[in-house]
Structure formats: structure tokens, C-alpha cells
Inverse folding.
């Protein structure tokens, strides 16, 4: 029986990971600690909330007494909780430093105190910064370029220091861009899919030639589970989809998938400090036997279908707080 503390479990990847755990393993207990910021949504977990092996606690990972109390009954920690949107980190970095850096510190301290068996720090490929040619390996230096990726780098290295200094069994994962169900419609794919469904413009930053490696969220969840079983403490694992695309390709695929006109494409002012290309070398994980299972074309179809079938989920989000943010930042 494994007792998991999942932080940020009401967000996009965290909620998919909780679904994944209950589907994959029959003997897990999940404690989901989430502050329910704008990005946290308990509707991502309605099918699980009555499961006797699942418990939700609304709270902040920066809250030391709360984290201390919860950590006492836990074997494994998977830290997803973070402020996660680059554009928001440009507008107001404060919460990024607080949650992504200080919150990770609180979790590490309490994990150390209560001798947990495994601490998975969910880092990101963005910690390496941008690369014109070639791909980053795990030993490459970190050159983060946004307040988001700099905060994530701080947390990534802090987690490593707890392995080196205190022998805390830490594993760090650096994954590329995820897509799939329950992703907040401010990130490229859900924003463009939902805008296109509503015949709204798709705001493409700069020339649209920025490249990301795209991985289906369930493949990411599977890789986390894999490194929890097979990974070595103190190690870093790149997780990628082996699937680099520029933003124009993604946009055209979405429009084609929904049968919408290219006239919805609108070029807008570039994001400040916009990283040109992210690219991961995933040889280390691949040689251990893990490979992504989903084909991009299939998983994109599944994703587009999900947003078409769950209009209520995202319309509620887009009609509220998000809409104001969208208007303010993009003027669309
Ligand atoms: P998300 O924004 O959808 O979810 C973040 C969750 O964390 C939300 O439920 C939010 O309420 C919660 N949260 C925020 N601050 C908190 C706090 N102080 N205490 C407790 N809960 C808090 O993010 P996501 O896309 O699901 O990303 C999850 C993790 O994966 C993040 O650490 C992110 O850096 C990392 N990551 C994301 C991607 C991606 O493509 N989305 C890729 C690589 C790594
Ligand atoms: P995003 O989903 O914010 O992820 P990342 O953390 O990689 O920046 O953006 C993915 C890419 O899409 C990135 O190059 C910025 C671009 N983008 C747009 O062109 N328009 C948009 O409205 C958004 C949200 C992103």
C-alpha cells in the first residue's frame, strides 16, 4: 500500500496523475493538497472524490504546520504544485517565488523530518532555457529565462541539495510541454482549441516559429510512475514526447481538426524573453525502457474531442476571471 501526497492535484497534470494512479494501481491512498488557485479545479476529480482511498485538503504548500501534519502519514510525495504560466510570471512573479521555491522548501523540510520514501520534484524542460540546435541532456547547465523557469530551477536545485546534504530520496523530472484533458485554457493548445470552437481569434506570438516538444499528459504520468519504480535517487530524468513542432504547425492542426478557417490566426506582439526552442535528449530514460506510448496525431484528436465534449468545463472558466485577464493581456 503506497500513501501518496500529491501537491497541486487539482491542476492539469496533478489531476491526470491522480486518475492515472487509481487506474494503474489497486493499492494506493492519495492525499491531494491544493490551494485551489485560479488553476485548481475540483471538477477535474469529480469521479474520484467519493473513493475512500482519496482525500482532498485545501491548503498551501507554504503553510508549514499544515504540511507538517499531512507529511506524517505519507510514503511518497509528488510535488506538482506551482504557479505554471510563463505569461503570468512576467506580469506578477511574486507567487512564483513563493510557491515554486519557498513552497518546495517547506515540503522538502517536512519530508526530511518524517523520513518519506521518495520525493518526486516535478521540474520542467524550461529550466535549461532555449537551444537553437541540438538537445539538452540532464547534466547541461540551467539557463532559465523567465521568472517561471527561474523559480522552477530554484526548486529543482533545492530538491537536489536535499538529496546531497540530507540523503533525502529525491528524484527530479524535467518534462516538455504537456497537452490533454483538464488543461487550463490559457496554455497554447487548450486556448487555441477552445477559441477556435467559439470562432474567436487565435493570438500567435511573434512569427509563430517557436518550437516546443509536445507530450500527451498520460505519457507524462506514466513516465513519473516509471521513474518512481525504476529511477535512482538523486538523479534527474528528462521526459519528452520526441515530438517537436512549431506553434504554426500546432495552430494549423487545431484549425484543421475542428474544420475552422485559417482566418482565425492572428499575429500579436511577441512574449518578452520568448524562448525560441526547447529540446530534450531523453536517451537516459529511453535506455531504461521508457518510451512515450501515444502518437501525437491520435492524442491531439483525443484532446480536441475532450474539449468539444466538455464545453461546460472550460466555458465556466473562460466566462469568469480568465476573460478579464485575456482581455487585459491580449486586447482581443
Ligand atoms: P496547473 O497550473 O494546471 O496546476 C497547478 C496546481 O497547483 C493548481 O491546482 C493550483 O491550485 C496548485 N497550486 C498553486 N499554488 C499552490 C500552493 N501554494 N499550494 C498548493 N497548491 C498550489 O499546472 P500544470 O500544468 O498541471 O503543472 C503541474 C506541474 O508540472 C508544475 O510544477 C509545472 O511546473 C510542471 N510542468 C508542467 C508542464 C506543462 O506543460 N504544463 C511541463 C513540465 C512541467
Ligand atoms: P505555453 O502554452 O504558454 O507554454 P510555454 O511554457 O512553453 O511557453 O506556450 C507554448 C508556445 O505557444 C510558446 O511558444 C508561446 C506560444 N503561445 C502563443 O503563441 N500564443 C498564446 O496565446 C499562448 C498562450 C502561447
Amino acid at each position: 500500500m503506497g500513501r501518496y501526497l500529491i501537491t497541486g492535484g487539482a491542476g492539469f497534470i496533478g489531476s491526470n496523475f491522480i486518475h492515472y494512479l487509481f487506474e494503474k494501481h489497486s493499492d494506493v491512498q492519495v492525499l491531494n493538497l491544493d490551494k485551489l488557485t485560479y488553476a485548481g479545479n475540483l471538477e477535474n476529480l469529480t469521479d474520484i472524490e467519493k473513493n475512500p482511498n482519496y482525500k482532498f485538503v485545501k491548503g498551501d504548500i507554504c503553510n508549514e504546520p499544515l504540511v507538517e501534519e499531512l507529511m506524517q502519514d505519507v510514503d511518497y510525495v509528488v510535488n506538482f504544485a506551482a504557479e505554471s504560466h510563463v505569461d503570468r510570471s512576467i506580469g506578477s512573479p511574486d507567487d512564483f517565488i513563493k510557491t515554486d521555491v519557498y513552497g518546495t522548501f517547506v515540503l522538502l523540510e517536512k519530508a526530511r523530518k518524517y523520513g518519506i520514501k521518495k520525493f518526486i520534484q516535478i521540474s520542467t524542460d524550461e529550466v535549461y532555457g532555449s537551444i537553437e540546435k541540438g538537445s539538452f541532456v540532464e547534466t547541461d547547465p540551467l539557463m532559465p529565462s523567465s521568472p517561471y523557469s527561474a523559480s522552477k530551477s530554484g526548486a529543482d536545485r533545492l530538491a537536489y541539495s536535499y538529496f546531497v546534504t540530507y540523503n533525502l530520496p529525491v528524484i527530479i523530472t524535467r518534462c516538455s510541454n504537456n497537452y490533454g484533458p483538464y488543461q487550463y485554457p490559457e496554455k497554447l493548445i487548450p486556448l487555441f482549441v477552445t477559441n477556435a470552437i467559439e470562432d474567436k481569434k487565435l493570438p500567435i506570438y511573434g512569427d509563430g516559429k517557436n518550437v516546443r516538444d509536445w507530450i500527451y499528459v498520460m505519457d507524462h504520468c506514466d513516465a513519473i510512475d516509471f521513474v518512481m519504480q525504476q529511477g535512482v535517487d538523486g538523479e534527474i530524468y528528462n521526459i519528452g514526447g520526441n515530438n517537436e513542432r512549431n506553434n504554426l504547425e500546432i495552430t494549423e492542426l487545431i484549425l484543421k481538426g475542428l474544420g475552422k478557417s485559417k482566418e482565425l490566426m492572428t499575429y500579436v506582439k511577441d512574449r518578452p524573453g520568448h524562448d525560441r526552442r526547447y529540446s530534450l535528449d531523453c536517451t537516459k530514460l529511453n535506455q531504461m525502457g521508457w518510451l512515450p506510448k501515444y502518437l501525437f496525431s491520435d492524442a491531439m484528436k483525443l484532446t480536441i474531442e475532450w474539449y468539444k465534449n466538455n464545453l461546460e468545463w472550460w466555458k465556466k472558466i473562460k466566462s469568469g476571471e480568465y476573460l478579464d485577464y485575456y482581455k487585459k493581456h491580449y486586447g482581443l
Remarks:
- Residues 86, 177, 187-188, 191, 203-205, 210, 212, 247, 271 surround thymidine-5'-diphosphate (ligand 2) (CB under 6 Å).
- The chain is about 40% helix and 20% strand.
- The CA atoms of residues 51 and 260 lie 40 Å apart.
